[in-house]
């Protein structure tokens, strides 16, 4: 019984951390290109409501996820047009995108509230699912969880083992130097911004179609902001981002298990609900307390505009 409880908590932790991993991987690639997009919360919300609407209309989970990715990608490209082409301030534009996306999603989603979708069954991995404790937790998950692991591996390979990953990081470090040797800095940054938007949409779609298959206003619940914090506090390293995402998921699931067990704690329910956010930020701040390490891994041109010479 104890093993079953541990396996259930581990499985729930992984599922809870999955949307953070998806969004944070997209934001990491965006920031590695030197672009700071603070609109993850808005893009996630738009991706969530779009995916839910498509799934509710009978489009199926795959089409729903693709629709959510496309909708968020359009928003990201609008942000790219403002900041990369029109040279608007990236921080202000990102904040506006976050606020606009959350508000628009709430407006679009009004007709879909209180209408649940069918639960999507997990996809067990033969043989591996029977490993004690870890098997049910790691190898009896929904397909999107496995996909998140593949995306982490792909981002790692792209950034640190591929030529174009090296070029992207060079653009984030010194766009003028990259432009001088013939690379299209703005085009590469647009591609990174589009990828970040698509990943945010995928994270939102996971929440509304797979994690809690329904639509409710505010269901993204700050995960976009947590994903942004993960990237910075993990010092732009993918594996640390994964660790932070599962840390957040673990604390969230732990407080839900405590509340569901009926244990009476002498603290307000609101404080209990805030513990995952507090714990994640606190631990990641401790991990990244070395300012030299942050400066070493931070893209040098992050948030700075670049205009190619005519």
Automatic annotation (TrEMBL):
Membrane topology: Multi-pass membrane protein
Protein name according to UniProt: ABC transporter permease
Molecular function per GO: transmembrane transporter activity
Keyword presence, NADP: no
Pfam families cross-referenced by the UniProt entry: BPD_transp_2
UniProt xrefs under CDD domains: TM_PBP1_transp_TpRbsC_like (cd06580)
Organism of provenance: Pseudoduganella lutea
Entry's localization field: Cell membrane
Membrane-spanning residues: 6-23, 35-56, 62-84, 91-109, 143-160, 190-212, 218-236, 243-263, 269-287
Alphabetical keyword list: Cell membrane, Membrane, Transmembrane, Transmembrane helix
A GO-annotated cellular component: plasma membrane
Database matches in InterPro entries: ABC_transp_permease
